[in-house]
Specification:
- There is one protein chain.
- By secondary structure, the protein is of the alpha/beta class.
- It has a single domain (about 5-155), classed as Phosphoenolpyruvate-binding domains (TIM Barrel, Alpha-Beta Barrel), CATH 3.20.20.
- It contains 7 helices and 5 strands.
- Strands 1-2-3-4-5 form a 5-stranded parallel β-sheet.
- Strand 2, helix 3 and strand 3 form a beta-alpha-beta unit.
- The N and C termini lie far apart (about 30 Å).
Length: about 160
């Protein structure tokens, strides 16, 4: 689990960020992209063959570098979100969010109580931070993708 969200910190510092979208399973590609100086990599678990177990080695590589991670998950599933965050994702991108209620469910699944309902379990990455619950409240960053167009209209009407 990351101790801070690298992308959020870069934005807070006023930096413009450049990233890469990847659905490649081979970790050499991820390491090369990070070494090239990109600010973030989106690891696509929605389209293509990647699952949390496939994504873990990419997250481990990126954790050692200055490149932030965003994992696009297949759907708004609290179990999938928990597993990918436990594996070390700094940020998640959730597709097909069409209502404010669905967006709140995403945030709820990404946060520990009392701010959310994400459960806590012994996973090696969680022991790298001195206070996992305090850090997790500020580090995990959930982003939603409103699609298709009716979802955008619904989201606007619910804000």
């Amino acid at each position: 689990m990351p101790t801070q969200n690298k992308l959020r910190a870069k934005f807070a510092a006023g930096r413009k960020c450049l990233g890469v979208w990847s659905s490649v399973l081979h970790t050499v590609v991820t390491e090369t992209v990070a070494a090239a100086g990109y600010d973030f990599v989106i690891l696509d678990n929605e389209h293509g063959p990647s699952m949390p177990g496939d994504t873990l080695p990419h997250l481990q590589i990126l954790a050692r570098m200055d490149t932030a991670t965003i994992v696009r998950v297949p759907w708004n599933d609290p179990v999938y979100l928990k597993r990918i965050l436990d594996a070390g994702a700094e940020s998640v991108m959730v597709p097909m969010v069409e209502t404010a209620e669905q967006a709140r469910a995403v945030v709820n699944a990404c946060r520990y109580p009392p701010q959310g309902q994400r459960s806590f379990g012994p996973w090696p990455t969680v022991f790298t931070a001195p206070s996992i619950l305090r850090m997790a409240a500020s580090a995990a960053w959930a982003r939603t993708v409103a699609s298709p167009a009716p979802g955008v209209r619904k989201a606007r009407s619910n804000t």
